[in-house]
Amino acid sequence: MIKFTGNLRLDFEKATAEITKLKDRVLGYQEQIVSLQASVRNLKRSKESDKKQYMESLAEKDAIIKELQNRLAHAEALLNHDGSNTGTPTSQTPINKNKVIPNSRRSTGKSKGGQIGHTKVSLEAPDESEITDTVGHPLQDDECCPKCGLTDCLPTGESEVKYEYDVRIKVVKIKHEFFYYECNNCGTVFRSQIPPSLKEKVQYGSGLQAFALSLTNTVNAAMNKASMFLAGITGGELTPCEGYIAKLQARAAKGLRQFREDLKLVLITRKIVYWDDTIIFILAKRACFRFYGDEFIAYYTAHTHKDKESLDDDNVLNLLTSATKAMHDHNTVNYNGSLNRKLPLITMHSTEHISKLAAEMASTKSMHCSVYAKGTLIRLQKSSLHHPTEYTSEYRVKSGVIAPLYLSCQQIDCE
Length: 415
Fold this sequence. Notes:
Layout: H1 8-79, E1 180-182, E2 189-191, H2 206-217, H3 223-233, H4 242-255, H5 257-267, E3 272-282, E4 285-293, E5 298-303, H6 308-314, E6 325-327, H7 348-365, E7 367-374, E8 377-384, E9 389-398, E10 401-411
């Protein structure tokens, strides 16, 4: 406080000095306020930066945790793959899991072997007119009376008969002789006509050719195995080479050309035509083997490439009308607009794929998943075991691809 003395000049000077001092103090306070405000702003910026870095670090850690959880869930889902949700064969079922029966057969609880009341099926004895060989079995040198052990025995005229069906492989060597004749009218000498089947001087007969074709086509034996088999059952007398057996296939295919054309005409009139193709190797090069048919008809083709051009060469799908449905497990060609057909049923690989997704989701988030498929629509429903929420995902097959339609979330009653 200023103490006034009554002297105006002196009091004025004191007041002026005090005012100047207060102004300097106010300016100092103002500078401190500005500095403090700047510090506060810096602290706020630092706080926001630290918070942003923390959130980024937290998000990164959450992403890592999520990725690790997904990896663990994927590994668990792979362990849960079996014949019920994938195409895994029963031979690849892990040791600690039961094999899944890939069909509708179930255990009846009955014992193995013949069942009570089941009629036993056995061979019937042939008629006497059908018997080709009769083999007598008299006492051998090492046989004797089972009671006294002596060999002085006489036949009683009675016998016990047993029958046996068997097959004998006998090599037949046929000599064909074509005679020459002289015409009494003009004196021309000519030979009796040789059939086209006897082209070579020495050749294999039609029976062996049919046998070799049956081995390769019916038994699916390799050509070298068919050659070895024929040599084995004939005691090495007949040893057709692999090249000869391969030529038989081409020769038989030419003979079946008209049959194949007639079979195709019947095939394209079916209501449903199933078709599939796979990769095979011909002369160490990739090729295509294709099937068309249903439960009663099988029509096979083979091509050097697996493409649309080979399908056009088969000329099967192109001939189908809207009255026929073509069924393939996943091929997008099946939905080609140029092929005038109705859209087939849902594909097998699509349902297997969704079933695998359901298994993985259930193992990832402890959720109960169910798959519903009808027509071209697949609906995947997931309900959490801990939260009263049901998630529904729908997928539709379009152009051979599973496309998600929507993902909805709706509250459901826990009770």
